[in-house]
Design goal:
4-stranded mixed β-sheet, about 30% strand, globular, alpha+beta, about 35% helix, about 80 residues
């Protein structure tokens, strides 16, 4: 799915990911971020911890594949908190 399709889907499904926030514009080192950003020619799915600093979960060349993968990460976090 594209970035716009991802945004519509998480809004319509009202996913609860707890204290995490979603960032899609650039890499962030803010605490508790789940993100997917286009950086240096590739899409990077990443996470930050409570004390900040990001780590890359996966690098993907294709936007659709990146947001499909990122959706699974967000859904996994939602399911972890809401089961």
């Amino acid at each position: 799915m594209t970035k716009q399709e991802f945004l519509k889907r998480i809004e319509s499904e009202k996913l609860n990911i707890g204290e995490y926030i979603i960032k899609l514009d650039k890499l962030s080192d803010a605490p508790l971020v789940l993100g997917c950003a286009f950086d240096q020619g590739v899409w990077k799915v990443y996470e930050t911890r409570e004390r900040g600093g990001h780590f890359i979960i996966k690098k993907i060349d294709n936007e659709d594949e990146a947001f499909d993968y990122f959706y699974k990460i967000v859904l996994s976090q939602h399911n972890r908190l809401n089961t």
